[in-house]
Amino acid sequence: MRMRQTGRMRIVVLTGAGISAESGVATFRGAGGLWEGHRVEDVATPEGFERDPAMVQRFYDARRRAVASVHPNAAHRALARLEDALGDELLIVTQNVDDLHERAGSIRLVHMHGELRRALCTACDARPAWSRDLVDLPPCPVCGERMLRPDVVWFGEMPYELDRIEQAVVACDVFVSIGTSGAVYPAAGYAALASAFGARLVELNLEPSDAVVPFDDARTGPATTLVPTWVD
Ligand code: BJW
């Protein structure tokens, strides 16, 4: 394993829907999947939004309400403790659009698939906070156009902060994948990228994911048990 001369380890943690499952947030795939009978690949698209914007806005409003009523769990809190210990040696890259990592205290965090708590103006690219007032699709607070959509990354769109993420992935000593199925790129390719640059790979998941590279340490079980054990 590569380590800097300081002896400290650089760790990248990639999280997916599984880390929030025990808080009561539904995952995307598998039984009881989030889009209720629709394949996420069919509906989480710009075309799906164009077809039926009102349905998609309603769906995201319902998810905002659902996330507001749940709390970070022991896995989110364990990662916040890890950041307290490691500081800028740790980067959490989450595919989740909920805010449970930050509510647990994490700061060095990238939301690569966007955030439920923001809107995106397709006219001027502003990303204002999403408040209750936006439900009736008012004008963008920056440019005045009525072109707001959820600030989330759908299939075919470019995820956020890819340069920052890739720099951290190629430089890390340990890459940890938590509660993600490995079905969606580019996130699904990060374990292989980290491995190619010499990182040790750890997976913490309810069941083994679709990862294309073998993990050095693959543990199966619920995140609220596995993550605190791995961190502490
Ligand atoms: C537990 C647990 C517990 C449960 N404890 N664990 C062919 C090949 C390669 C790529 C492509 C391809 N065709 C198209 C593409 C690209 C496409 C893609 O990947 N498609 C796939 C279907 C193949 N990707 C894109 O379009 C992305 N953009 C892109 O590629 O841009 C171009 C580009 C080019 C070059 C470089 C970089 C970019 C954009 C993807 C956007 C994904 N958006 C969504 C919706 C976000 C908004 C919303 O939330 O509504 O993101 S889809 C959905 O899937 C969401 C998630 O973040 C993402 C991943 O899901 P996740 O988190 O893994 O959840 P699940 O449900 O799949 O898995 C849960 C896991 O938890 C399971 O493993 C369980 O076991 C586990 N678990 N309970 C621990 N208690």
UniProtKB/TrEMBL annotation:
Binding site for Zn(2+): 121, 124, 140, 143
Cofactor annotation comment: Binds 1 zinc ion per subunit.
Any one annotated GO CC term: cytoplasm
InterPro entries: DHS-like_NAD/FAD-binding_dom, NAD-dep_sirtuin_deacylases, Sirtuin, Sirtuin_cat_small_dom_sf, Sirtuin_class_III, Ssirtuin_cat_dom
Enzyme Commission number, as recorded: 2.3.1.286
Gene Ontology molecular functions: histone deacetylase activity, NAD-dependent; NAD+ binding; protein-malonyllysine demalonylase activity; protein-succinyllysine desuccinylase activity; zinc ion binding
Superkingdom field: Bacteria
Keywords in alphabetical order: Cytoplasm, Hydrolase, Metal-binding, NAD, Transferase, Zinc
Sites where the protein binds NAD(+): 16-35, 95-98, 179-181, 205-207, 223
Keyword tRNA processing: no
Record's keyword annotation contains Nucleotidyltransferase: no
Necessary cofactors: Zn(2+)
Pfam families the UniProt entry points to: SIR2
Subcellular location as annotated: Cytoplasm
CDD domains from the UniProt entry: SIRT5_Af1_CobB
Catalytic EC class: transferase
Catalysed reaction equations from the record: N(6)-acetyl-L-lysyl-[protein] + NAD(+) + H2O = 2''-O-acetyl-ADP-D-ribose + nicotinamide + L-lysyl-[protein]; N(6)-succinyl-L-lysyl-[protein] + NAD(+) + H2O = 2''-O-succinyl-ADP-D-ribose + nicotinamide + L-lysyl-[protein]
Residue ranges constituting the Deacetylase sirtuin-type domain according to the UniProt record: 1-232
Residues forming the catalytic site: 113 (proton acceptor)
SUPFAM superfamilies attached to this UniProt entry: DHS-like NAD/FAD-binding domain (SSF52467)
Family: Belongs to the sirtuin family. Class III subfamily.
HAMAP family from the UniProt entry: Sirtuin_ClassIII
Primary role: NAD-dependent lysine deacetylase and desuccinylase that specifically removes acetyl and succinyl groups on target proteins. Modulates the activities of several proteins which are inactive in their acylated form.
Name the record gives this protein: NAD-dependent protein deacylase
